[in-house]
Structures are given as structure tokens and as C-alpha cells.
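QUALITY CONTROL LOG
STEP: pairwise intake check
CHECKER ROLE: data steward
CRITERIA: each record must contain a sequence immediately followed by its C-alpha cells, with no blank fields

ENTRY 1 OF 2
RESULT FIELD BELOW
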Amino acid sequence: GVSDQRVLDVIANTPRHLFLDEALSHRAYEDTALPIGFGQTLSQPYIVARMTEILIGAAGGPPKRVLEVGTGSGYQTTILAQLVDEVLSVERIKPLQDNARERLHLLRLKNVRLRHADGGFGWPNAGLFDGILSAAAPRSIPQGLLDQLAPNGVLVIPVGADQQSLTLVIREGDSDQFKTQTLEPVKFVPLLSGTST
């Protein structure tokens, strides 16, 4: 279901086993979500590729500045960092962030900034983002994330509680109007706290 060759090449060339504990590394290349501790998961390769493809496609090409909500293992961060100019990523669980930082250093990715914070609030003092991608699902889209979209910026986010849908939001120019499209059913860990609309 993913056709963007840039995304497929990056997924194929990224060593996913580095993002798992050694005990699970033998399952790294299965198309399934896997536990990374603290009640969090490493998303399946398909959904990482799909969300990345949506972000790039809706933006008309790789966006320059991307905010990632939920660094987790750093796998999605790594995929994004190979396709866009700059990735800023927030994670609320410090040990996960520390592990992700080590992996990003090991892979020599220098266009990523990490922040230990509540992802629902994004990174408000870092300016506006051409793209925002969330690896956790709020019950409704946080206004704080919408506020951080640049003109024509793109937000890709799972939304919902028991029933979740992958959702695409595009800011219409520099207005406060947003075009929203529900794409497909998904299952993500919940986005905790943050403000909602």
C-alpha cells in the first residue's frame, strides 16, 4: 500500500533491529508492532512508511521542518531524518528518549533535536512546522499542535480512543482554517495529557 520510492528505500536501508532490545531483535523485520518498554511500542514498518508517505505527499514533497510527537525508540525519527531537513521530536518518557538519542548518534543523524516534554503541547517555542507527525493517539486533535502548523502545514495523527483513525489535517494557507480527512483505522498508544479541541 506504500508507493513512494523515497520512503521505501529509506525503510529498506534502516536497520530496524537497532531499535529493539536484543531479546526481540530477531523479530525486527516482521511487519508488526513490538514492545519497547514503558507500555510503548515500536510501530510496524507499514504504518511508519504509510504515515511518512502521507506527510510527504500532502506537503507536495518532503517538508523542511517536522515535529514528531512521541520519539519512542527513535525509529520513526530516523526515517524522517533521512527525508527532511530538520526533525524536532518530543518524548515524555526520559529513558526512551535517552535510548533514542544513543541510536541517532550511532547512525550519525545530525539533523534531529530531542526534547523531554509532553507531546500534546508540541514544541511551542520552536516556531512553526511544515509537518507534524504523531506516534500517539489523542481523543481529539490538540489545538496546540494545530497552532504550530506553518501555512499549508500538514499534520498526520491517529485520533480516537477505542476506535482510532489515521487523520490528515492541512492548514489552509496562513488562515485558522483546517481541512481534515480521515484515512484508515489504526491502533496506537494514547497521547496522554495535552490540550484538546
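ENTRY 2 OF 2
RESULT FIELD BELOW
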Amino acid sequence: MRIAIISDIHGNLPALQAVTKDIGRRGVDSIVNLGDSLSGPLLPLETAQFLMAQDWVQLAGNHERQLLTLSPGQRGLSDEFAHSQLTTKEFEWMASLKPSVKYSSEVLLCHGTPGNDIAYFLETVEPNQLRAATLSELDKRLGSVDAELIACGHTHVPRSMRASTGQLVVNPGSVGLQAYDDSRPYPHAIETGSPDARYAIVERLAGAWVSHLISVPYHHQSMVKLALARQRPDWACALATGRMT
């Protein structure tokens, strides 16, 4: 079994199309999408229409939840723009998505962690740094989850870690946004340092799950120009460089 994992598209349709094309030439059995698909100043409606036409297993991320539940005064700029572009049809599709799915007896899909769509699974934020989770932190966050493979997104950081139990946790990184900053629980920035779109392929070999983290170039300058036209220089910088200003 070979599964392509995508996540955190954030309305970046050209990046998604480049990733989908790359997946097509690698011979996978299925594609799964871990959510945060539309929020941002780019192409939320067009991205939703593309995704709704696929037969993939797809999840809701925290931004899908926020788009569905937050009022205008509560939504951030990215959610506000996406919300303004979508129709009833797209909102109904989002409402049908779940934040966590047992894909098979061996595979669990989630956006953040199995029980929290905004929790970091493979990273830890401290007052003065963002770092990779330790083995003990990973084991604790897994809790009673018994799946052999757990796919997560949310942090936009491509990373693969194996727990002390042998379970593999894989974050494919972000298809559409390679840097962002956040103030919770402490101010921190996520930066991949490259504009390339990211995804992962996982497969079972010799009785164990293994992962391949993949970077795909695309015509990111078109999205940089669009972000600037939408008055989002922060997004333009992240899309152009994979870094925050």
C-alpha cells in the first residue's frame, strides 16, 4: 500500500496542482488530505471546487472549523477572505468533513493530534524556541492510539518520527504555505526556507511503515503577486521565500 498525504493547502491551487501531478507519476494507491485547505488570500473557491471533485479521503482542519463556526468579528484576515469567496455548496462540503479519521486498522489520519485540531504533534513551542518533539513527548501525545501509522498536519513542518512503540508519525508539511507566525502558546515562527510545495508518500515495506517527504517546485510567483494584490505582504514573503519577514 502506497498512500500520498497532503495537508495545509490554504487555497494555493497552483501548488496543489503541481503536487497532484507529481503524485500521479509516482504510482500511489490513494491520496488523503488532512485539512486547512482553503483559508488564505489566494484561491479558496477554486481550490474547494478542485478538491470536491476528487475521490480522496479528506479531513477538516482547524480553519475549516473556524470558517464554519466563527462570527465575522472573530475571524482572522485569512479566514475572513476565504469565507467571503465561498458559497453554500462549499460550506456544506466542509461541514461533512471530520477532523480525525481511522483510515484502516493500521492508519489514523488527523489534522493536529487525534484529539485536538490545533495541537502540535511533532513540534514543541517553548518561550524562546520552537523545536522538534522529544521521544517522551511523542509517546505522551500518542496516548492510547494504537495505529501503526499516524498522519498529521497543522504545523506545516515536514517531519517523520517513530515512537518508542515503533509507531510512525508523519507530517507531510504544507502544500500551499511554507512559513507563518503564531502567538500561541508563545510567539514563534514556522519557516521551511523554501517556496516549494510539500507532501509525503508512505508505504509498508518489509512489515513496517516508511515515509518519503517530497518537495515540489511550482510557479509560486503567481501566488506571490496575488497575495500582494490582496494586501497581504506577509503571505507574499512566505510564498516567495519560505520565511517570514
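INTAKE CHECK: passed for both entries
DESCRIPTIVE NOTE, ENTRY 2: The longest helix spans residues 13-24.
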